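Handoff note, outgoing to incoming analyst
You'll be picking up this chain. Sequence as last confirmed:
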Amino acid sequence: MLMLEIKKLKKSFGTRTVLDINELNLYSGEKIALVGMNGAGKSLLLNIIAGLTKPDEGSVKTGGEISYIKQFMDKESEESITGNLSYDTDYFKILREFEIYGMEKYDWLSGGEMTRLKLAGEFSKNNSILMADEPASNLDINGITILEKSLKEYNGLLLLVSHDRELINSVCGKIIEIENCKINVYEGNYDFYKRCKQLEIDRKNFEYGEYISERKRLFRAAAEKKQHSKEMKKAPARMGNSEARLHTRGVNSKKSKIDAAAKSIETRIEKLELKKKAYEPPIVKIDIKECFKLQSKIAVYGSEITKTFSEKTLFSYSNFEIRRGSKTAIIGPNGSGKTTLIKMMLNGETGIHFAASARIGYFSQSLEILAPALTVIENVMAASEYSENFTRLLLARLLFKRDDIYKKVSALSGGERVRAALAKIFVCSNNVLLFDEPTNYLDVQSLEALEAVLREYEGTLIFASHDRKFISNLATELIIIEGRRLNSFSGTYGEYLESRNQQGSIVKNKAGDCMLD
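Most recent structure output, in case you need it:
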């Protein structure tokens, strides 16, 4: 059943066209991810479909009611969610599915809890169209797993915007890319889209190369013909009149043929099918200067670590050890103390010890290392150990070009602020990086660029993240916060999940044996 029909839609801001969609038809049961760089128009398209923003031209027709999970909500909107809690059977069931219990007061809710409540509220409407803009923001891994299950079970038309590649891969069977204000449709998940996109780029660049080579060959051939025509000799002075006339007639005949051949080649050049180089949007490129090596084999260790707030204990009498050069992910549910542990490391609280030569770079999800009133270049130069020329080059590779570096931080988007904060860290020779949710607000391309540079980073990386693919691709060690303890695991996230599943199977088998007895 047709659920969404878009025709000749255009939306511009000033002289910049953001969306130019000729036609798009989407049907019930389709699960679609919208992808594109920050600022490509993903959220804008959702707002237009929801009727919150009017297009300049064109029409949008929907075949049912819309549930819209927005990325950002003001306090009034959030309070309206908690103020309209319904305890009918269906809604109560969904609240329990999202593991929401007794959350009646807005002031008591964490960011993750508010996100769960927001998701439960929209799912409970059971509308025929569901639009979700970064629905995994602030959710812990368990919350994302619940969200993933709910999205899979949803039967209507789903439009999803997310930088969580694993969520897209698991849920979506179609990708709509917004690029240069146009849309491109791919039938498959995110990995399939990436492969197709790369094949398209390779094919277009190959065809462009062949086109350029053929043009050059034809231009050379035409030039050679013209030069040959130009160099054809006139009749020598010693020839008689009749002989000279015969010579000139012969030369002119040959010259005409050569000129005609040159003209024919020029016509072929004009009729060559124009091939353009594949459009490749500007991408983030990050370099980290070589860091000073730690002398100690252990970068940081904790002994008898305890943290308590009021009457709540996050963890007690726990030990951990992080090896030099390792990439350690701190994982655990919302409110378990991941950010707290990173800040305890940063502050060198009692029981936590760094190697003597450790130089620490800290990325906070609140981006507190940036001064909002200062410009990008002022913020980064305040920490830079390198020349302004190098700093400008790094900022350019992070897509801060020309006058962008003079923007005040307060005027930057979320993704731009993250890139500016990363620049401020990367202009220092740190050999230990503490990163708290570094993937928030980044588009997938920027996220993958960060992932690539951190993978090659030779220092020690300690990070907290809810992005499962980011953890899977980076972590070599884990610290798991559970049961008020810090538990260490030597291995990747995938190996940890496999180990946990095996332990679960053993427990089930033992339970089964007991039941048989």
